Structures are given as structure tokens and as C-alpha cells.
């Protein structure tokens, strides 16, 4: 992710996933923070959605509260 278009695309893709409640994209750091209901979706679905859209090198860091 290097531009506003990528930020908007990633935000749109992830927010379209049922169970996702919040998406925060930081373009300079190339990070995405996602808040979702783990009873409805999971990180695998989010990663696969981005991979299918052509985004590569996706790593996952999980913070549970």
C-alpha cells in the first residue's frame, strides 16, 4: 500500500466482510488494523480477501482484548 487509492480499496474490501466493525489503514507504515467479531469471521478470511485482490506480503499480528 503506497497511496490513497490503496488505502480506500483496502478499507472497502475489509469493511465488506461480515463481522468487521472497524478498519484503520496507515499508508506510511503500510499497516492495517481491523476490529472484527471472531464469532462471525477470522483473520484468515481477511488475509484471503486481500490476497485475492492482489495484495501480497500480508503478515498477521493479533492483539486480543
Describe the structure.
It is built from two helices and two strands, in the order H-E-E-H. It is an alpha+beta fold and 65 residues long. It has one domain: 2-Layer Sandwich (Alpha-Beta Plaits), CATH 3.30.70. The protein has a two-stranded antiparallel sheet. The longest helix has 12 residues. GO terms for molecular function: metal ion binding. Pfam families: HMA (PF00403).
In summary, what is this structure?
This protein is an alpha+beta fold. The chain has helices spanning 4-15, 43-52, and strands at residues 20-26, 31-36. The protein has 2 helices and 2 strands, in the order H-E-E-H.
What secondary-structure arrangement, pairings included, does this model have?
Blueprint: H1 4-15, E1 20-26, E2 31-36, H2 43-52
Antiparallel strand pairs: 1-2
Domain HMA: 1-58
Pfam families: HMA
Protein name: Heavy-metal-associated domain-containing protein
